[in-house]
Design brief:
It is a single chain. The protein is α/β, with parallel strands linked by helices. 38% of the residues lie in helices and 14% in strands. The longest helix has 18 residues. It binds pyridoxal-5'-phosphate (PLP). Pyridoxal-5'-phosphate binds next to helix 3 and helix 4.
């Protein structure tokens, strides 16, 4: 590809911090873990941050820490990565998939009438969801909220960082995300000490003290070397998010139609994905591919259309319509202005 959809970046600073941690710290539970957690908590404006092995484990452990079990039902939107729903099933709870609004692809609760025990809104594409509606839904039903902020490190909702506005925030450091740890990794954020302690215990086999285990748990800790790399990435997150915002403004300014998904008017997106929505999506994609420009569709199949969810028989028409129209364009900070303009030219050729 002349312009790839994604570029994995590995800097000298990442390398030096990784080598330092490997040479000087315990491979598991080293100092870098504590420092990364403290710095991440400070960054999100929460009292606690507890690192884990992935975004998926962050979600799953959070639900367990909040008491979600085989008797529970938990809502999440169908337009997301499958982990947003799988985490519910992995706690043996029942997933209730909601449809989305076709403006920005975010959660829409207007057709949900069921009594549930929890909700996982997703800040999809790095854009904060309509959190007011989620909050009033949760307050009415008196249920906890776990934010899936796996794509939204640094995004703001009403001037507060996502991950700090609910019971627990969950982040993924998978390499394509706005920040990584040089491999898989995740983080949970919360203001509740008891929840933080439960998450710490569940990520470590349900440990209470060195030799006592008082609950079921996993080995889902983050490795020290990954925390060391994460600290470097966190330091540069704001500048990288700012570059993503520059890129989206170039797209918006130069595309002949206003077809980039809008930003939440009460928030600030970090543009994990820059997504266009257009009837000519397939033609646009072909034009980009023919010219060696990467693109992707998130998500081609909404969760309810995946084989392991079909048995539930959901009909969520907005998400199905939306999936046929969307296309993610390159959005990574290393993309140059000229490359962005070149992508605009090809898109314009089809839509004008
Ligand atoms: C919205 C969303 N939720 C959950 C996850 C799961 O994160 P991970 O891949 O780190 O398990 C991801 C990332 O892939 C995601 O994008």
């Amino acid at each position: 590809m002349k312009i790839p959809f994604f570029i994995q970046e590995f800097t000298d600073e990442m390398e030096e911090s990784a080598i330092y941690a490997l040479r000087n710290e315990s491979f598991v539970g080293g100092e870098s873990i504590t420092k990364f957690e403290e710095e991440f908590a400070e960054y999100t404006g929460t009292k606690y941050a507890v690192s884990v092995s992935s975004g998926n484990s962050a979600l799953q452990i959070s639900l367990m820490a909040l008491g979600i079990s085989d008797k529970s039902k938990v809502i999440t939107p169908t337009n997301s990565f499958i982990a947003s729903a799988n985490c519910i099933r992995m706690t043996n709870a029942e997933p209730i998939l909601s449809d989305i609004n076709t403006d920005d692809g975010g959660i829409d609760l207007s057709n949900i009438t069921e009594k549930v025990n929890g909700i996982i809104p997703v800040h999809i594409y790095g854009n904060p969801c309509n959190f007011e509606s989620v909050k009033s839904f949760a307050e009415e039903q008196n249920i906890p909220i776990v934010e899936d902020a796996c794509q939204a490190h640094g995004a703001l909702y009403k001037a507060k960082k996502v991950g700090s506005i609910s019971d627990v925030g969950c982040f993924s450091f998978y390499p394509t995300k706005n920040m990584t740890v040089g491999g898989d990794g995740g983080m949970t954020t919360t203001n509740n000490e008891e929840t933080a302690l439960k998450i710490k215990s569940i990520r470590d086999n349900g440990r209470k003290t060195k030799n006592e285990f008082d609950k079921l748990g996993f080995t889902m800790r983050l490795n020290t070397v990954n925390a060391a790399i994460g600290r470097v990435q966190l330091k540069h997150l704001d500048e990288k998010n700012a570059r993503r915002r520059e890129i989206v403004s170039i797209y918006r300014k130069n595309l002949v139609e206003d077809c980039i998904l809008p930003e939440n008017k009460d928030g600030k997106s970090v543009y994990h994905q820059i997504v266009l929505k257009h009837e000519k999506r397939d033609e646009i994609r072909k034009e980009l591919t023919d010219n060696e420009i990467g693109s992707a569709i998130y998500y081609e199949k909404p969760i309810h259309k995946q084989s392991i969810y079909e048995e539930y028989g959901y009909k969520l028409p907005n998400s199905e319509k939306f999936a046929k129209l969307i296309l993610s364009l390159p959005s990574y900070p290393l993309l140059t202005n000229d490359q962005t303009l070149e992508i605009c030219e090809h898109v314009n050729k089809i839509i004008s």
